[in-house]
Design brief:
With 167 residues, this protein is of the alpha+beta class. It folds into two domains: 1-42; 57-160, Pleckstrin-homology domain (PH domain)/Phosphotyrosine-binding domain (PTB) (PH-domain like). It has helices spanning 3-42, 158-163, and strands at residues 57-69, 86-93, 96-101, 107-110, 114-120, 122-123, 126-127, 133-139, 145-152. The strands form two sheets. The protein has a seven-stranded antiparallel beta sheet with strand order 4-3-2-1-9-8-5. The chain has a two-stranded antiparallel ribbon with strand order 6-7. A hairpin with a 5-residue loop joins strand 8 and strand 9. The radius of gyration is 21 Å and the shape is elongated. It comes from Mycolicibacterium celeriflavum (Mycobacterium celeriflavum). InterPro entries: PH_bac. This is Transporter. Residues 43-164 form the PH domain.
């Protein structure tokens, strides 16, 4: 390789690295701005209860897909750690639903806040081929309605959740 080709290749490599760095910085800035806009809408999550009754629906293992502002299935909530996928266990109690996530704070969904439990093809940027996500629509203390998505390891367990839907 001659000197002219080497210099040209190095210049192109530097330009490419700078361009990639600028794109990553823009993505991070967008994520932070979205979090700032959503912080007021989301507010604080409900506190975990001190005690709960026996489980109505046994623990269901799977993946916490994320939460979105209802009814927009692709408007992911990024406030706190709500925007990150994680392995999770979903359990229903008479007082509400407990979503225990690996490496993140558990989410408590009070029974009075739940407006619907259904299956969906997609939520929070995760699309499935057939009703692969359990979506729980509920109202936050701030009054904002959100959908929380959960993909069970065994999709057959969804029947337990949808049948137990509040009237």
């Amino acid at each position: 390789m001659n000197t002219g080709t080497l210099v040209g290749s190095l210049i192109m490599a530097v330009i490419l690295v700078v361009l990639i760095a600028v794109l990553i910085q823009a993505m991070v800035r967008g994520w932070r701005r979205r979090a700032e806009r959503q912080a007021e809408l989301v507010g604080t999550l409900p506190a975990l209860p001190d005690t709960v009754g026996p489980a109505i629906v046994p623990p269901t293992k799977g993946l916490y897909v994320g939460s979105t502002l209802a009814p927009h299935w692709n408007d992911r909530i990024v406030v706190g750690d709500l925007g990150f996928r994680a392995k999770a266990v979903l359990t229903r109690y008479p007082e509400g639903i407990m979503l225990q996530r690996s490496g993140a704070v558990p989410i408590w969904i009070p029974d009075a806040s739940i407006t619907a439990i259904r299956t969906e093809r997609g939520l929070a940027g995760k699309a499935m081929t057939h009703e692969g996500i359990l979506a729980i629509r509920w109202r936050l203390p701030s009054g904002t309605e959100i959908d929380t998505g959960f993909r069970a390891n065994d999709r057959g367990e969804y029947a337990n959740w949808v049948e137990k839907e509040p009237a």
